[in-house]
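Following up on my earlier thread - several people asked me to post the actual chain instead of describing it. Fair enough. Here it is, all 331 residues.
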Amino acid sequence: MSTLILQFLLLAAIVAAAGTALARAADAIADATGLGRLLVGSVLLAAATSLPELTVDVAAVRAGHADLAAGDLFGSSLMNLLILAGIDLCRRNGRKMLSREAASHALSATLAIAVTGLAGGAILTAGKLPAVTFCGIGGWSWAILVAYLLGARMLFIDQRISARLAAEEMPERRGMIWKPAAVFLAAAGVLVAAGPRLAATAAELADRSGLGGTFIGTTLVAVTTSLPELVASLAAVRLGAVDLAIGNTFGSNAFNMILFVPLDAAFPGSLFEAVSPAHAVTAFAVIVATAIAVLGQLYHAERRLPVVEPDALLMILVIGGAFALVFRLSS
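Reply from S.P.:
Thanks for posting it. Predicted structure:
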C-alpha cells in the first residue's frame, strides 16, 4: 500500500510541474497572439489542464470504473472552485478574484453552469427516458457538446473587441509565439503521458480502501487531476495574470463536462445509466458554488470584510458539504 501511495504522489508531482509550465506558456501565448488572457485561460489553458481528466477517465471507463470517471469530472470541478475561493481568501491586495473587476468572466462561468446542469440532468433521467444515440454517443452527451460549442462561440465574440485592440502589438511580438507554444505542447504531452498511470493507481487505491469508486473519484482522483489547475492558477496569480487564473477555473469546469462525450463513446452501453445517482449531488453543488462566484463578481460592493470574504467562504462551505454528502451516500 505504501508503494502505491508513493507512486501516486510521484505522478501527482509530475502533473503539478507540467501545470506550472502550462501557465507560464499560456501567459506568453496570450501576449504574443493578442487574444487576451481571458480567452486563452478559458479555452486553451482550460483544455490543456483538463487533459489529465480525459486520459484518466477514458482509461477508467475502459477498465469498468465508470463511477470513478464520473466522480473525477464532477469532483474536479468542485476542486477547481475550491482553488478559486481559496486564492480569493488569501489575496489581500490587487485585483480580486470574486469582485466586479472580474465580472467579464461571468459569461464563461454561466457556460460552466449550463453544461454541468445538462450532465446532472442526464444522471437523474438515466434509464427513465427513451435512449437516443447517434454514432455510439447518447443524446445527453451531444447536448452537452453543442451547448459548449455555442457558449465558446459567444465567449469568442465577446472577447473579439479586446483582441482587436491587442492586435496592434502583434507584428513586433509574433516571433515570440514559437517558444511558448513549444513549451505548452511539451507540458500538455507530459499530462497525457502521466494520466493513464494515474488512473490505474487511483483505481487500485479505490479497491484497497473499500470506499468505492464514487467517493474516491470525487475526492482522491479529483484532487490529483486538479493539480494542473491549482498550480497553473497559482503561477498565473504570481505573474499578475488574474484573468488567466479565473478563466482557467471556469473554462476547465465547462471543458470537464464535454469530456463525457469521449467517455460515452468509449463505454459499452449508456454511461449515465452506469454511474451512481450520487454524482448528481456533486453536479448541483458545482452549479450552486459557481452561481455564488458569479454573484460575487456582479455585486457592486467592493469593500472587503476585515476577516473573510463571504462569497468565497460560502463557496467553501457548499463544496465541503457536497463532499460530506457524497461520502454519506457512497458509504
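The chain has a mean pLDDT of 79. That should answer part of your original question.
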